[in-house]
Amino acid sequence: MQSTSSVKVLYLVGPGRAGGTIIASLLAEIGNFVTVGELMHIWDRQSLPRRWCGCRKRILECEVWKGVFRAAFTGMSELEWQRAARIYHQFLPTRRFPRFVLPFARNSILKEARAFLHATYRLYAAIRDMAGGKVIVDTSRAATYGYLLQQVPGLEVHFLQLTRDPRGVAYSWQKKQVEVLEGQRVNMKSRSLLASAADWNAQMLAASWLLRHARRRSLCLRYEDFAHDPRAALAEICRFVGAACDNLPDALEDIQMSVHHTFAGNYNRFRSGCVQIVPDQQWRADMPLLQQRVTALLTWPWRRKYGY
Prior knowledge:
Elements: E1 7-13, H1 20-30, E2 33-37, H2 63-73, H3 78-91, H4 103-112, H5 114-130, E3 135-141, H6 143-149, E4 155-163, H7 166-174, E5 177-181, E6 184-188, H8 193-212, E7 219-222, H9 223-228, H10 230-241, E8 254-257, E9 273-276, H11 282-286, H12 289-298, H13 300-305
Parallel strand pairs: 1-3, 1-4, 2-3, 4-7
Antiparallel strand pairs: 5-6, 8-9
Helix pairs in contact: 2-5, 6-8, 7-8
């Protein structure tokens, strides 16, 4: 019988390359959290065969995700999958955020998404049950999906907003990430400086809107503050969601990272073994000064608001 009790979710919102993957992984190491990566993309059914789990297996070949799919989606009809995919493509990308601003448009979306919300609860409940009741850390980041999540009956969603200096974000997006998975070279998409700045602004605007409509208190964490004192940052997050932090180690500069079954996200999720937590300020030395100034100019309003 499927549990109908509350499922606690820590939802990360904000721009990419802001430390969300490593923060989620560290929380999972504490023992009271389970990180699932960017779970919103599970509704893009056509991409499932191409997705890789953090364990370096295809998602559809990972025993953990097979168990989640059986528990959550057994009996789900083809029509229900098609409706879920339509919600994903029409409303969840950040570029669709303006549709959520007007109340009448929001109400129309929620009416259309009723079946999607019920299926979403089954998914998160299945993960909660398989993880032994741990807090689910979802790094999807999209404010649109975050808004729909807090409408799901039975989900207790806490929003963690992550920020990072947009110049560091732009520099990180320009670097190429390559992983070798089952003998195949897999490249992560990069972004131009202008695309990165535009996305940073859009993510900050959408996150600001989401947090104004949040049903619970939210928490904002700057990547720079986390990297300076990761232990204090993780302890604050634990207090924020009401999770015990008894297993938090005294020192987090070097930590043994386990394999986590993450659905999608930054390729850093494939890293395991000894991981160093140090501030990534390489952009200050290596990013051309003109690029720094252009990025600073393009992101000026939100950059100043968050102290950059």
